[in-house]
Design a protein that fits this description.
This protein is an alpha/beta fold and 492 residues long. The chain folds into two domains: 264 residues, 3-Layer(aba) Sandwich (Rossmann fold), CATH 3.40.50; 209 residues, Glycogen Phosphorylase B (Rossmann fold). The protein is 44% helix and 18% strand. The protein has 18 helices and 17 strands. The strands form three sheets. The protein has a nine-stranded mixed β-sheet, with helices on both faces. Helix 15 links the parallel strand 16 and strand 17. Helix 3 packs across helix 4, helix 4 packs across helix 5 and helix 11 packs parallel to helix 12. The longest helix is centred in the N-terminal third of the chain and has 21 residues.
Length: 492
């Protein structure tokens, strides 16, 4: 660790860097990353001298260094790769992270594969991340570790003698104790999390579930639950635990959505889908997102409310994810079968019920769809937060949209007062909500959407970071001043 005093940098540590490197011909190319974490942290780290430590998504090779140096200049913060091999990817990423923790923490324990090999590789990779932090950290840095892939990173940082302040934020739900008990390494995971100085969760429910698991499984812990941030005393240490709902760069979305480029793109889409209300669904390919259940509800709505036929179209965007995994391949086939089945049943001349896109959208396309849609149908079976619903509301410049939101999304805690709340397993309930949204008068739409946008504007991504940093050590973003990017590109 560098001994330079007075450093004031944020070091973000996550499984993936905010870029990915792909092979192209005989060389490589950098592509921007996707997902809620990138959307949330990129504007925070930009030009503040910060570092982002993570995996590139492919086996690391020497040729990647120049690509990462160039990408650092574009992103406005340093990018530090953690080299992972094929076995790491198979057992740590696809195995422990996504065949055990992901389904378990989303209350889908029947999908878990508790292979001991996955556990040992997960520990090995977490140690690699900790060593990479030690190589790049300076005195005074604040290390912020993110998500379920790296729950043991703080443990290994302490074990190798790194004495920096370290926080952890879990972006997915934390399960109730009776579900968490299914994890064979449950106590070791909890004890590892107690090596962080601050633990952040998306909702009060997640925080409560974690504290209940501590009480049930870790002898000797003392809990002080009063206040927004609780305190855990364990082995002579005090660990703070709080709920910090993540958000978006509200002003950035409003600014970009109001551009002529986005307005023109939205108009072209409107011309292709005239005289109807557009319902938008945007999800990563994943079984937690409730896409088949959403299609069942949409089909039910078309059957029960014939006046919707020809008057609404569902545009469902599915962003490819983990397409090498058989379970995800099967989900993709089911989605495509349902699209064909529903369109085959209801299509009329000049009208197709579901427009299905299996691809990523660039920012202009994404914002254009947000501007186009009168209704957003966001119905995950379980979600840590879900930023799509917040992005949709931020882009609703004319206050004419309606948000239909799953009560099992973390965002429901904040947005329930303006959204139509639904149980995604209740096919008829979601069906009625679609009709209610379609029929909602303009004044009520405006009232609801104004309320939603005010909530998101007040508690945006910078509010999220400031509340976390204040809980960590009574600092906020102004204590991490902007710098020239050349000052913090990691040396090769």
């Amino acid at each position: 660790m560098d001994g330079g005093a007075g450093a004031k940098r944020l070091i973000a540590v996550s499984n993936r860097l905010p870029i990915r490197i792909i092979r192209e011909g005989r060389g490589y190319r950098c592509l921007p990353g996707a997902g809620g974490l990138v959307t949330a942290l990129a504007p925070v780290l930009r030009d503040r001298g910060g570092l982002w430590i993570g995996w590139t998504g492919s086996p690391y090779e020497k040729g990647h260094e120049l690509l990462l140096e160039s990408a650092s200049k574009e992103t406005g913060y340093g990018l530090v790769p953690v080299p992972l091999d094929n076995e790491d990817e198979r057992d740590y990423y696809y195995g422990f992270s996504n065949e055990i923790i992901w389904p378990l923490f989303h209350d889908l324990q029947t999908r878990c594969k508790f292979n001991p090999r996955y556990w040992y590789r997960y520990l090995s990779v977490n140690k690699k991340f900790a060593l990479k932090v030690k190589e790049n950290a300076k005195v005074g840095d604040y290390v912020w570790v993110h998500d379920y892939h790296l729950m043991h990173c703080g443990f290994f940082m302490k074990k190798i003698g790194l004495s920096l302040r370290v926080g952890f934020f879990l972006h997915i739900p934390f399960p109730p104790v009776d579900i968490f008990l299914k994890l064979p390494w449950r106590k070791k995971v909890l004890e590892a999390l107690l090596h962080y100085d601050l633990l952040g969760f998306q909702t009060m429910r997640d925080k409560r579930n974690f504290l209940n698991s501590l009480s049930a499984l870790v002898p000797g812990v003392k809990l002080k639950r009063r206040g927004a941030v609780s305190t855990v005393e364990y082995l002579g240490r005090k660990i703070r635990v709080g709920a910090f709902p993540i958000s978006i760069d509200y002003k950035g979305f409003v600014r970009d959505c109001d551009s002529k480029e986005v307005a023109d793109a939205a108009w072209y889409l409107h011309e292709a889908l005239p005289d109807r209300q557009v319902i938008i669904g945007i999800d990563r390919l994943d079984y937690t997102k409730g896409i088949p259940e959403r299609f069942f509800a949409f089909s039910d709505a078309l059957s029960r409310f014939p006046e919707l036929r020809g008057r609404v179209s569902l545009v469902q965007v599915v962003v490819p994810s983990r397409t090498e995994v058989p379970e995800y391949q099967e989900l993709k086939r089911e989605i495509e079968r349902l699209v064909g089945e529903i369109n085959g049943k209801f299509t009329q001349s000049g009208w197709v019920p579901i427009h299905y896109l299996f691809r990523s959208l660039d920012r202009v396309q994404l914002l254009a769809y947000y501007r186009l849609a009168e209704i957003a149908l966001i119905t995950p079976l379980k979600d840590g937060m879900n930023l799509v619903c917040k992005e949709y509301c931020a882009c609703n410049l004319e206050h004419r949209g309606v948000l239909i939101l799953s009560e099992f999304a973390g965002a429901a805690t904040q947005l329930h007062s303006g959204a139509l709340m639904v149980n995604p397993y209740d096919i008829e309930g979601v069906s009625k909500a679609i009709f209610t949204a379609y029929s909602m008068p303009r004044p009520e739409r405006k009232k609801r959407m104004k309320r939603l946008r005010q909530i998101i504007k007040k508690k945006d991504i910078f509010w999220w970071v400031n509340t976390f940093l204040n809980a960590a050590f009574s600092k906020d973003l102004k204590d991490f001043p902007r710098e020239s990017v050349e000052e913090y590109i990691p040396l090769r």
